[in-house]
Write a structure and sequence with these properties.
mainly alpha, two-stranded antiparallel sheet, 8 helices, about 50% helix
């Protein structure tokens, strides 16, 4: 899960940030998986402002209204890891956030969602945007918490294939024809 020890020495050393949040939907699938309703992700390369901006940017690129910030925080953690491993990535992320802020009168995060989105749409296709997007598509959709949010049970080999667990069940369609879900032999 998102449990990660933060040593006092690492916290005091600075250079990074601690991104903290609370799971909002107490009865949601992610809350049922989590040991507590509070989550935290430590960054080593990104400042708190950069981490919060990347989380919000990821929400704009891949919007899921009721998906918890804890899932989006995993993207921030992966971007932080990439920035720590490659100084060029760290510079790209920092400069991209600075440009968003500059185009927003100083603080992109202070804008409302609609105004933020206008600025996100304006940078679509730029290397900064593509770095965040390409990292997010893997980080966001390839983890147990996102799978729980979407109702995905995981790869077929984990539970013995799809036939015995919903392959023939099309309840998610509005009015599936009977022949779409024949009995399993």
């Amino acid at each position: 899960m998102l449990q990660q020890a933060v040593s006092r020495r690492t916290f005091l050393k600075g250079g990074g940030a601690l991104l903290v949040g609370t799971i909002a939907y107490a009865g949601g699938p992610i809350a049922l998986m989590a040991p507590t309703r509070t989550w935290a992700v430590e960054t080593t390369s990104l400042s708190e402002h950069q981490a919060r901006a990347l989380l919000k940017l990821t929400r704009h690129i891949f919007p899921h209204d009721k998906m918890e910030d804890a899932v989006y925080a995993l993207v921030v953690k992966d971007l932080d890891t990439a920035a720590a491993a490659d100084p060029a990535t760290g510079k790209l992320l920092g400069a991209g956030i600075e440009r968003l802020d500059a185009r927003s009168g100083g603080d992109w995060l202070a804008l409302d969602d609609d105004a933020q989105f206008v600025r996100v749409r304006a940078i679509a296709g730029e290397p900064f945007f593509e770095t965040v997007r390409s990292t997010a598509v893997v980080s966001l959709y390839n983890n147990d918490m996102a799978w729980a949010y979407f109702g995905y049970e995981g790869p077929s080999f984990i539970k013995g294939g799809y036939i015995g667990r919903g392959f023939q069940d099309l309840h998610w369609l509005p009015d599936p024809p009977k022949e779409a879900s024949p009995p399993v032999d």
